[in-house]
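We modelled the chain as a single entity of 354 amino acids. Its sequence is:
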Amino acid sequence: MRIRHLTAAAALAASTCLAGTAFAQSTNLRIQTHYAPETPSGQLAQEFFDKVEAMSNGEITIEPFFSSAVVPTVETFDAAATGIVDCDMTGGAYQTGKNPAFQFVGDIMGGYDTPYQQLSWLYYGGGLEEAQKLYNEFDMQLIGWWIYGQESMSSSKPLAGPEDLKNWKFRSPPGMETKIFEKLGASPIVMDFTEIFTALESGIIDGADASGLANNVGLGFYDIVEHATYPGFHSMPSDHLACNKSVYDAMPDHHKAILNTAMESLALRTALTFEQKNAQAASDLRAKGVTLYDWSPEDRQVFRDAAQATWPEFATSPEAEALVESHLAYLTQLGLVKDAAASDAAAPASESAN
């Protein structure tokens, strides 16, 4: 009797195991990022891929493509939307040609000071809801952001303040940035992320707005140029993970939860990692003889004023206007933008006092 009982129990366990195997759901995601695998962001992306696979016990597998290996960086979004890859791990600002609203999910410029402020807008300031409407219009699902902090500009010439931007030829991402820097006298040249090193080396450009200091070191820029702005102030792009909506919708709920949770983890790890890596990179570069320029509050305000004056000029679609309004409301709450209503109300009293 005991042997028969054990045999029945073993059979039941085996059938349960087989049933579990039969009903296990699998998701395979092909994800392209513009980052090289040896950069800090590339390494963080690989950690994210590994974590998703581990958390799903192998039910989710990821085939990564680094350094825009499948299509050029700016085409990654379309490649995901049309099924060439499944997910775009670049940034929304590359898609401003589709709708200027992408600028305000990709890189607001002259807005938030820290990654934590910008992430708090996304998750607690209504940002994700507004942004999701935009992404869904293009059959994409925004999973989340990873923000490494303020970018540093690399240059073959000094960049001690706004005056040094006059006639400065530099690589710029597409979108609003070109308008802001043109106002300050610079000559922005839009080119793919993967072309920057060669353009610097050949002298086609004087400098580049590419990434944070540590990533720029990883890209080898300071083997060519000897000047950089640090700490950065002009640009804090929100690199995104956005997936084909049909692919995302077909995923079981627990796979979606794993992807979203791992993305939130990546966001925190990215911000914390670059706090340390940028500081270490700055120390190493100074020792190497690279000059780092920390702009004064007054000089930073010159850029901030030019950037904020450009927001309404660039917000030429209903979606862009909605995102700018959302950002301004949250920036005002944080004290980073003056309350326009309060300023207008105070103006008559001030004038009458005079």
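As a brief sanity check on the tokenised model: The first strand starts at residue 27 and ends at 33. The chain has two domains: 26-147+237-277, 152-235+293-349.
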